[in-house]
């Protein structure tokens, strides 16, 4: 008996050591500050990360392309002859406030998105109504309903209401606090999540307005997750061994147009001139260690876009100046003698450190055209407010959609530029790749810069890190496995 005990006890101890552990707290970072926690209006990587943790959608597109039911109880039941889709809703799902999810909550949420800021995602829908234990969606045109209902604006909120200071969703985490002054938010595990409780009890996510602050925090182990941990290795090693996981190139960084110098900014030939003056190859080095693809249109290669041409990559100054001369025929302030007196503001978020360097590259492109530029760093909330009021000249923005879904990218890009063309075409089934490319080139509602794949660094004992098809880090999948090992220890 003594011999048996001597053998069994070490095996049990080893098993306990290597099982995933429930832990009290993990610190990490966001790629900037969230301006909103409303999934209907979320656009930036930070916003999509947070709303994806607090709220659930009916479906989710995985990185490999598989569509996973979330709040839906199964696949859409389609009647293509009548253009109707019936979506059964999972039973017994709880909101963070302990209320049970109802079909009415789902219908109200989809209707709010369809008639508001989520129109770009739900343009093919005519109406949403309750049908027993399901929602019935009437369509204007055939579309992949499951993919449409995986897009961020379709997330389900309590009674379909816009989230307030305390967002109520069904997601794996609840919002415990949001401290904009302290640049952090705290998420707590939702005990009654239908998918099961997360291994992490609490996640604290920070954002930073100094380029090296995040890396230093990761290096000293004050943070175990980092979107900029790679910068720590330029001057040394982090306290504990770390690894990295790369997301898909599913985050579009773009230049948007405000209304401050409206005559200049709304002129398509000026937008074309800026596009042609950009050296996008120079942007590849901005995000060190991450996968970056220069982009001439707002659709990734994986969704059918062509590889970037030499002009897209490095620009063509001769063609850019010709486009500016064409613009000057309609906008006198752009003629050769007056353009040098024009100065345009480039606004960007102060907690996305890479955006300052990107803004500088855009300013250089303007300089090649003889136009001056000033750089304005501001909070995410102020930037969103100024964009909505049109009190900027140029600004840097972000968009994300499921990687292989071209129509979603076109619709999101046109809408971000304040142009309803894609929504109208999507509603009638007339949004084709060829037509969208032609209209985008003529209108240029935004100027795409690059598709970025976010790299997430993590302490080596923090496992399970993965991304979904929108490039959102799935922090709900994380768990602790083993113990941290100091750097330099074999």
Task: Describe the overall structure.
This protein is an alpha+beta fold. It has three domains: 20-31 and 171-247 and 456-481, D-Maltodextrin-Binding Protein, domain 2 (3-Layer(aba) Sandwich), CATH 3.40.190; 58-160, Dipeptide-binding Protein, Domain 1 (Dipeptide-binding Protein, domain 1, Alpha-Beta Complex), CATH 3.90.76; 251-453, Dipeptide-binding Protein, domain 3 (Roll), CATH 3.10.105. The chain contains 15 helices and 22 strands. The strands form six sheets. The protein has a six-stranded mixed beta sheet. Strand 7 (125-131) and strand 8 (134-139) form a beta hairpin. The longest helix has 17 residues, at 2-18. Mean pLDDT is 91; it is low at 1-16.
Give the structure's gist in a few sentences.
The protein is of the alpha+beta class and 490 residues long. The chain has helices at residues 2-18, 45-54, 103-115, 119-122, 145-148, 213-219, 262-265, 268-277, 310-314, 317-328, 353-368, 380-389, 406-416, 421-428, 433-443; strands at 20-21, 26-29, 59-61, 67-69, 77-79, 84-88, 125-131, 134-139, 173-179, 184-189, 202-206, 225-226, 242-246, 251-257, 291-294, 343-349, 372-378, 394-400, 447-453, 455-459, 462-463, 479-481.
């Amino acid at each position: 008996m003594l011999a048996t005990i001597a053998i069994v006890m070490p095996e049990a101890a080893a098993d306990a050591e290597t099982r995933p552990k429930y832990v009290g707290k993990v610190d990490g970072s966001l790629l900037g500050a969230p301006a909103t926690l409303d999934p209907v209006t979320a656009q930036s990587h930070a916003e999509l990360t947070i709303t994806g943790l607090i709220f659930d959608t009916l479906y989710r597109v995985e990185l490999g392309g598989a569509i996973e039911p979330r709040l839906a109880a199964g696949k859409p039941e389609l009647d293509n002859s009548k253009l109707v889709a019936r979506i059964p809703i999972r039973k017994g799902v709880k909101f963070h406030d302990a209320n049970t999810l109802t079909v009415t909550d789902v219908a109200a949420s989809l209707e709010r998105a369809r008639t508001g800021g989520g129109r770009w995602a739900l343009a093919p829908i005519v109406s949403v109504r309750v049908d027993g234990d399901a929602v019935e969606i009437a369509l204007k045109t055939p579309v992949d309903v499951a993919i449409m209902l995986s897009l961020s604006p379709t997330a389900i909120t309590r009674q379909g209401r816009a989230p307030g200071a305390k967002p109520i969703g069904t997601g794996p985490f609840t919002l415990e606090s949001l401290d904009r002054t302290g640049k952090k938010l705290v998420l707590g595990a939702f005990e009654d999540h239908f998918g099961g409780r997360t291994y992490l009890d609490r996640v604290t996510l920070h954002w930073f307005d100094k380029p090296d602050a995040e890396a230093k925090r990761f290096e000293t182990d004050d943070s175990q997750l980092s979107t900029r941990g790679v910068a720590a290795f330029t001057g040394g090693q982090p306290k504990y061994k770390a690894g990295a996981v790369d997301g898909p190139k599913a985050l579009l960084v773009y230049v948007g147009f405000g209304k401050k110098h409206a005559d200049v900014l709304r002129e398509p030939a000026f937008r074309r001139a800026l596009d042609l003056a950009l050296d996008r190859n120079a942007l590849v080095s901005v995000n060190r260690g991450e996968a970056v693809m220069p982009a001439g249109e707002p659709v990734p290669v994986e969704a059918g876009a062509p590889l970037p041409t030499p002009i897209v990559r490095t620009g063509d100054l001769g063609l850019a100046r010709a486009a500016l001369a064409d613009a000057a025929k309609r906008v006198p302030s752009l003629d050769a003698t007056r353009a040098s007196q024009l100065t345009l503001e480039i606004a960007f978020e102060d907690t996305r450190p890479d955006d300052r360097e990107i803004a500088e590259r855009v300013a250089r492109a303007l300089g090649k055209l003889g136009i001056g530029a000033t750089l304005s760093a501001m909070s995410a909330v102020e930037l969103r407010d100024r964009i909505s009021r049109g009190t900027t000249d140029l600004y840097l923005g972000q968009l994300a959609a499921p990687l292989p879904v071209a129509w979603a990218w076109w619709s999101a890009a046109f809408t971000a530029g304040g142009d309803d063309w894609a929504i109208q075409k999507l509603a009638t089934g007339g949004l084709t790749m060829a037509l969208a490319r032609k209209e985008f080139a003529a209108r240029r509602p935004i100027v795409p810069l690059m598709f970025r794949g976010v790299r997430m660094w993590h302490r080596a004992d923090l496992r399970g890190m993965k991304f979904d098809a929108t490039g959102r880090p799935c922090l709900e999948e994380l768990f602790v496995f083993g113990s941290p090992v100091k750097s330099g220890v074999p």
